[in-house]
Amino acid sequence: xxxxxxxxxxxxxxxxxxxxxxxxxxxxxxxxxxxxxxxxxxxxxxxxxxxxxxxxxxxxxxxxxxxxxxxxxxxxxxxxxxxxxxxxxxxxxxxxxxxxxxxxxxxxxxxxxxxxxxxxxxxxxxxxxxxxxxxxxxxxxxxxxxxxxxxxxxxxxxxxxxxxxxxxxxxxxxxxxxxxxxxxxxxxxxxxxxxxxxxxxxxxxxxxxxxxxxxxxxxxxxxxxxxxxxxxxxxxxxxxxxxxxxxxxxxxxxxxxxxxxxxxxxxxxxxxxxxxxxxxxxxxxxxxxxxxxxxxxxxxxxxxxxxxxxxxxxxxxxxxxxxxxxxxxxxxxxxxxxxxxxxxxxxxxxxxxxxxxxxxxxxxxxxxxxxxxxxxxxxxxxxxxxxxxxxxxxxxxxxxxxxxxxxxxxxxxxxxxxxxxxxxxxxxxxxxxxxxxxxxxxxxxxxxxxxxxxxxxxxxxxxxxxxxxxxxxxxxxxxxxxxxxx
Length: 486
Description:
By secondary structure, the protein is an alpha/beta fold. Among the domains are: 8-251, Amidase signature (AS) enzymes, CATH 3.90.1300.10; 313-377, no CATH class. The chain contains 15 helices and eleven strands. An eleven-stranded mixed beta sheet has the order 1-3-2-4-6-5-10-11-9-7-8, sandwiched between helices.
């Protein structure tokens, strides 16, 4: 990001101290959006007028001596599957085009209470189903680093918004890697928290047992700050962790000394999945392991055997839950309704046929089949048993290691249309989805470059509620890159 080089924490400190007006902060970001959004298409909705009003309100509160919050005056972009009261929330689907929720998602409330300023709702793969943001009903998002390439997905709009300098903060949702994978492809930081650490109330569901909201930022410190704002119990979310979530920002400088780091063999060269990883990606992951060893960590290889089955289990569980969750879009209660059918059943069929795109239909059909009589135990039940194996294997690994390390994505950013076969596209998630199946946190940190000089993301994984360790290690990796001048 060149046009607006300040970090979110620097902006908030300036605004809270009164040394800079939020109204002055917002204008360069809005100018950058006006200049490049037509090329990038990071947003489904740009909220320039609302952002200016919010900035003016922040300045009035600061002038009155109020503490506006830890994100005072910081621009933020939100993935367009998080409900925003009175603002269109579409999931990049024609079936919800123009729908305006009557309430805010909990995370939307929390970032607003922290003083952040909403600049827009970002594009995504329809209903968060995809790894390239090519599946949006409103057109693809382009990678700001090279507009001939995809930004990753499904939260590609949020990743692109941060990478393009449209906002220093963004939120996305991560069901199988949809924060971490686009973060890797766009060269930014992406954090998937522990399942239940961040409220899903107001997040439009794809797969309820897998979805989790997480930050995109330019720095690890900003990711920690945003996590600290959005994390915590929410009585409106039945899956929300009831215990208090400890802040992780105080641990940014704890370092890697004495930590035990396990490099996942199945994802780094000696396992059956490694053939799909680009050599440069594997080389940067090895370099990251060496950087942690140089910082005082004990680094060795570890096997998490059932990760090789993660892709198969995920693409049964995810579509099955999607089939159930998306049944509500029936043309009756809200969203698109196609008129002219002979009866209600015909109206529902026509509305869903016109409203959903090809990938969403594909996953609904896969999920419905997996849940159908005679196949439930053979497919869905078996996938859940594999999920338990994955959880158990990770728990065993964490008996010997504090964190694990792997590539985030098997490849760097790729051209539009290069992976039009669904199975080829699904393989992009092979390193990220095990954390979703286990419910564990993970973070992608930019680390060096790969093919054609494009950024590589290295993934750090931790056990349940291990965000503190993630941030420690991520900060060390970031510092090693900065020290190398990258």
